[in-house]
Amino acid sequence: MTQLLSPDIIRARFSRAMSEMYRKEVPAYDKLLELVSDVNDKVLSDNPKLKARLAETDNLERISEERHGAIRIGTADELKMMSRLFNVMGMDPVGYYDLTQANVPVHSTAFRSTDAKSLSRSPFRVFTSLLRTELIKDKDLRKRSKEILAQRDIFTPRLRELVRKHEELGGLSESEAEEFIKEATYTFKWHSEATVDKKFYEALRDEDPRAADIVCFKGPHINHLTPRTLDIDIIHADMPKYGMNPKNVVEGPPRECPILLRQTSFKALTEEVSFEGEMGAHTARFGEIEQRSAALTPKGRELYDEILAEVRNEILPTPDGSNADEYMKVLEEKFSRFPCSPEQLNKQGLAYFQYYITEKGKKEGMVSSDLYKLIDGGQIAYIPITYEDFLPVSAAGIFSSNASDKTRQDEFQKSSQDEFEQALGRPVWDTFKLYEEMEKKSIEDTIAKLKQISGSS
After folding, report:
1. Which of 93, 176, 222, 386 could form a disulfide linkage to 172, CB 3.0–4.6 angstroms apart?
2. Whole-angstrom Cα distance, residue 80 to residue 85?
3. Are 210 and 105 in contact (CB under 8 A)?
4. Residue 405 — very low, low, confident or very high, per pLDDT cuts 50/70/90?
5. Helices assigned H by DSSP within 296-356
């Protein structure tokens, strides 16, 4: 009987294949990886306690492997097929993101693994946005865009065959998986030939550059691939030394005990494109870096959003970066009231945690049935569960800032999660429920291991 390959293995191999492709397409990405590797090595070298905690909780090895990509697609049929493609790699749609809040005509989800062990093996995720063609204001551009999207097929026939085979048999063989990775990687490849003439492209780009990026090309070329760093402020400061032009500010509040997600990027590339034989240029793809931190509970997220709204009511970063220092100062000051230690986050129920047995616990075993007494006694310790998802405001901001330098305006109507899920063909996972289950299982597994230690001693 043919042995079927684990979705985790396929996902990890696909992630590496995507990284290799993007290195060739965007040379600056190679420099980005070099910078991230240098900074991460230094952080771990300078902080052996952090390194030990990451190793203890199976989070160390994944740091260097971690990537997220971002794509934009045009139709409900493309979204349904994309969901089937990601399912081969054990990736489900998690969360709903309304990017119309930042004047971006898309709504989105993130395809990723939902299991803690699978995440430790390969935390690859793809932020996937669906164009809302009804938000293209010019009726002629809207009509033509729909026609163009209806005529294209972004998936190869062989890829469709392999996805069907996976669904029928429950997996792929080694050789089929390698073929699947090759075909799937091609789906996200950059093509320097547009599918439209220059006049139409420029008209649609002037209305919305994101719509033009989706409609005018052969497929959903990946527009950024993001490694994870352990210190984004050093990354941001050092990017010019590596030949990269960074954004004006790091998105997300600077904190001693970081939460959720902080990110920065080098600005989008202007690339030469052939528009039915007439040469022109397109700006969309960029390099992004992220620092992932503590996943917040609904209570924590409510406080985060409340403080972020206070910041936005007082100041917004200008497109030219002229108020960057002032903006970061306000951001830091406002977020100073958000508890800034793992102990306080835990005590106040603001974040989710992963629990593990300490060296003392391995020697002493189950000395109490009370979790908090075991923590106080030093038998069990905890580390924040890594936030695996995205921030609506943050994600929308980075899309906007890399597509255009125009001042942000809230013009679009809000999206509908029901409409998105109908296009997707299935509901998206609730992020809070996933983290809650991860924390619950972490506690149960840790207690069970302590009991085993006590029983064998």
Report:
1. 176
2. 9
3. yes
4. very low
5. 298-314, 324-334, 342-347
End-to-end CA distance of the chain: 43
* Domain assignment present for 252: yes
Quick check: helix, strand or coil at residue 126?
strand
Asked if 111 and 88 touch (Cβ cutoff 8 Å), the reply is: no
**Does residue 371 form part of some domain?**
no
**Which of residues 388 and 286 earns the better pLDDT score?**
388
CA distance 92 to 108: 13
Domain that holds residue 100: 7-293+395-426
Average pLDDT for residues 191-204, to the nearest whole number?
A: 96
Decide if 88 contacts 180 (C-beta within 8 A): yes
pLDDT digits (tens, 9 = 90+) for 303-342: 999 998 899 899 888 877 888 889 989 999 999 999 989 9
Euclidean distance between CA atoms 182 and 194, whole angstroms: 22
- 120 inside domain: yes
User: Cβ neighbours of residue 286 under 8 Å, at least 6 residues apart?
Assistant: 223, 224, 265, 266, 267, 268, 269, 402
Q: For the chain, give percent helix, strand, coil, nearest 5.
A: 55, 15, 30
Q: What are 230's two structure tokens?
A: 């352990």
Number of domains in the chain: 1
Q: Which amino acid is present at 337?
A: R
- Per-position b or e across 155-184, b if 16+ CB within 10 A of its CB: beeebeebbebbeeeebbeeebbebbbebb
DSSP string, 162-190: HHHHHHHHSS--HHHHHHHHHHHHHHT--
In 337-454, the DSSP E strands lie at: 353-357, 380-384
Backbone φ and ψ for 392, nearest 5 degrees, come out as: -55, -50
Encoding tokens for residue 255?
Answer: 């904190």
DSSP bridge pairs for 290: 228, 263
Q: Of the given ranges (56-65, 234-243, 280-289, 436-445), which has the lowest mean pLDDT?
A: 56-65
The CA distance from 90 to 170, in Å, is: 11
169 within domain boundaries: yes
